[in-house]
Amino acid sequence: MSPEVSKKPRVLSGMRPTGKLHLGNLVGALNNWVKLQNRYDCFHFIADWHALTSDFADTSKVKEYRVEMMIDWLAAGLDPRKSVMFIQSAVPQHAELHLILSMITPLGWLERVPSYKEQKENLTDRDLGNYGFLGYPVLQAADILMYKGNFVPVGEDQVPHVELTREICRRFNSYYGEVFPEPEALLTPVPRLPGLDGRKMSKSYGNVIYLSDTPEEITKKVRVMMTDPARKRRSDPGDPDVCPVFSYHKIYSPDETIQTVNRECRTAGIGCIECKQSMSQHLIESLSPLLHRRKEYESSKSDILDIMEEGNHKAREEAERTMEEVRRAVKLA
Ligand code: TRP
Ligand code: SF4
What we know:
With 333 residues, the protein is mainly α. The chain folds into 2 domains: 213 residues, HUPs (Rossmann fold), CATH 3.40.50.620; 81 residues, Orthogonal Bundle (Tyrosyl-Transfer RNA Synthetase), CATH 1.10.240.10. Strands 1-2-3 form a 3-stranded parallel sheet. Strand 4, helix 9 and strand 5 form a beta-alpha-beta unit. Helix 4 crosses helix 8, helix 8 crosses helix 9 and helix 11 packs across helix 13. The longest helix has 29 residues. Tryptophan (TRP) binds next to strand 1 and helix 8.
């Protein structure tokens, strides 16, 4: 069904192309997007302009990362017949709407955004004193409002950005008439998947399993994964509740295995080597459709580019329709 005749509520979300996706991205976001695509009219885009706000000094990887990200999305099960997938910078209307929204956004609103303050303090290796970085949430508001998104599936950290989008939306509508519906963040509880060392899974910690890892690589990584640190010898009983391996079992293994591990770990009935072997088997089995699809897409880069082009085209049509309305509303048409 084409998006314009669909009566389903619309979902919109984006990701910055900052490198290969990992299991944390899959469990935390992508699996949810895949589930949503049957019930909602979905738009998902690769936020390459947003990637520039902090990585403007070296842009050489962005193009490659866009393709990698699209492959990861398709491998995860996003279906181009159900979800429109596109590249932000291929739809220049985002820049135009961003400009108009920037006129009605008070500076104080932007300076109050928690991620702005945090990142400026934490990413001290980069110069974030630029105008684009402060305006990041305005560009995000433009992304969301452009498609009149009703729901925005995002993580906790992005909620303030959606809140700001709502404020900008209300302000726009009060000045120029009801053009945009107010979007809502869609927070879905997701299981916690720690990194290989038990910390949050993050590329910068080097504790991730990539969606592009082969079964052999996955097995190798699991083999050196952290376990209950109190369990030093095979004969020591362990506590699965503090063990990252068990968190994975809970997501990827059948109930029976989960129960067995939960019981036998506490009595030293099962050893960590065996426990990990069983976990990596279940993990690889669950990922096998994804790994398979990824291989297929990797060998047909031209299909990926076609899918992108088609998504870009649909998004541009939709965006242009909104912009015509916007230009009329602000009396610039
Ligand atoms: N800011 C988001 C992030 O860093 C990415 C993003 C850009 C986005 N535009 C969006 C997410 C619009 C949802 C909707 O993860
Ligand atoms: Fe973790 Fe499994 Fe070892 Fe228990 S037996 S500590 S759950 S790896």
